[in-house]
Amino acid sequence: HTKKFKKNGYSVYSEEMDVKAAYKLEIERNLKLAIANGELELYYQPIIDIKTREINSMEALIRWHHPQLGLVSPVDFIPIAEESGQIIAIGMWVMETACKQIKIWHDEGITPFRVAVNISTKQLLQDNFVESVIQTLQKADLAPQWLELEVTESVLLDDIDSIKETLLKLKESGISISIDDFGTGFTSLSYLRNYPFDKVKIDRCFIDDINLDMNGKRITSAIISLAQTLNMKVVAEGIENELQLAYLEQENCNEGQGYYFSRPMPVSSIEIKFKNRGGKLFIE
Ligand code: C2E
Ligand code: MG
Ligand code: MG
Ligand code: MG
């Protein structure tokens, strides 16, 4: 950064930093009101069984409708919420909303599927996290088998013992745990053996590379074999085309998610699809 600053010789870069800092403050200030004002919404993206094309689960992905800024991506506000601690309240809202929604879909007689909820490290480090998740499930009258929690690799770098213990408790209470964005972080392979993961989600960048060259293909199939050898299911993220899907099917990848099947959608759009398909959800 300093290098860039010197090279430019004047304040272009520091102005950019000011703008960024101001944006961050603005987001932080506005996030305080977002839950209360009902500006947050969950979109859902189906996760498909690659063999049967049936929807196995729905990943809940947060959206923020900011009155002035418009639709703000989670990529732009989740890191800020993590830093400020607001992720605790937002995470609770996400968990409650997702559990209630899945319960509604089950009650409507739609083929039961699970809901996958993204969890930040800060949440896992809360003393009462496990209890609060169990309470949320009870309040929504939803059995723990319908909930999947997605954690990223970076989670494993913090306070290893307490995180591991929390994940184990969650698993013991019947909730399943996925490792998200696998392959992009700093995880050593031994984490896969030592942590109670049920699923590995291969990061989108590897799926992108499938079309590129043989090495792209080889890395993906190596991750699939490794995870399956350790008795974990494998989900491919970011499937965008037929070629990628065909390769993943050939390599026996268990599940897939991506624009090729469906973009994340608001509840209203999903319900239209349900009604059209008589309560069974398949992706053709
Ligand atoms: P993620 O958990 O890895 O979620 C997958 C992201 O990939 C989503 O981005 C999804 O829209 C996008 N995606 C899915 N299929 C495709 C595809 O075929 N092509 C491309 N290019 N993208 C695809 P989104 O919704 O913008 O979310 C970004 C990240 O924000 C998530 O990554 C997750 O890390 C975080 N996030 C979202 N919702 C929550 C939440 O409720 N809590 C927390 N802690 N993090 C969240
Ligand atoms: Mg995820
Ligand atoms: Mg991911
Ligand atoms: Mg991601």
UniProtKB/TrEMBL annotation:
Coiled coil: none annotated. It comes from the Bacteria. Residues 24-278 form the EAL domain. This is EAL domain-containing protein. It comes from Paenibacillus alginolyticus. The chain holds residues 385 to 668 of 668 of the full protein.
